[in-house]
Amino acid sequence: MKVDITAAAAAASHGTFTAGSYPLDEDFAVRLYSLATQLDEFPGSYPPDDTGSSGLGVAKALKALELATSYQHAFSLDAMNAALQSAPVMIGIPWLNSMFEPDSEGLIPVDRSSGIAGGHELVVNGLDVDTSTYTLTNSWGTSWGVDGIGYLKSADLKWLLSQQGDVTVPTWALVPPPDPGPKPDPNPGTADDSHLWEVAKQWAAAKGLT
Fold first, then answer.
1. CB–CB of 90/59 below 8 Å?
2. DSSP state of 159
3. pLDDT by residue (tens digit) across 67-101?
């Protein structure tokens, strides 16, 4: 999958992007993160200083790149669940020391007594209502969780968000459908038939059949 960065978006990216088409890979994620650190509310930017960023910074970066038209914040788990009906959302939560190592099935252990290592931003992709479990995508590569995917119980996520966590909901820019190309003429005229006949006569002449 690729995204196109327009000349206007590149100009708004503080030199992070040039106009062109980019695959959604690790390089794109690092560039987006770099832009977020320049637009967020924290001092410093990456590179050279990895000061971290926020959902607000990422949302501003997505808007600058014309990949999102706007963004808003959800202030409750119910509001986040409603937003998930349309698209993934971003969460910023305190990251506990116990959360670095999900179990073999990707479940993230939230041991409130393990201490806070810092803050972290993740993408919430969906909710399994039968098990009250959220699916999250991390940015640490496929070696974390199950191929980069982790799971949080609803009660754990609710508590983490209560600890000054946040939910950012981008409004994604609509991608125009691919150009299907010229439509076939429903009433082909004699011009096309004449062209085919001329080609046929030339082929026959070349084969000595005339």
1. yes
2. H
3. 999 999 988 889 999 999 989 999 999 999 999 99
Of 125, 133, 129, which is closest to residue 151 (Cα–Cα)?
Answer: 133
Closest CA to 88 of 109, 65, 71, 106: 71
Rounded-to-integer distance, Cα 156 and Cα 160, Å: 6
pTM of the model as a whole: 0.74
The Cβ of residue 178 has, within 10 Å, a number of other Cβ atoms equal to 6
* Alpha carbons 47 and 147: distance in angstroms, whole number: 27
- Among 154, 134, 155, 156, residue whose Cα is nearest residue 145: 134
Give the strand pairing for 68-74 and 166-172.
Answer: antiparallel
Residues 6+ apart with CB under 8 A from 79: 167
Q: What is the identity of the amino acid at 123? A: V
Cβ–Cβ < 8 Å for 108, 151: yes
Q: Can you tell me the distance from the alpha carbon of 174 to that of 66, in angstroms, rounded to the nearest whole number?
A: 10
- Residue 146 pairs in a beta bridge with 149
- 57 φ, ψ (degrees, to nearest 5): -65, -45
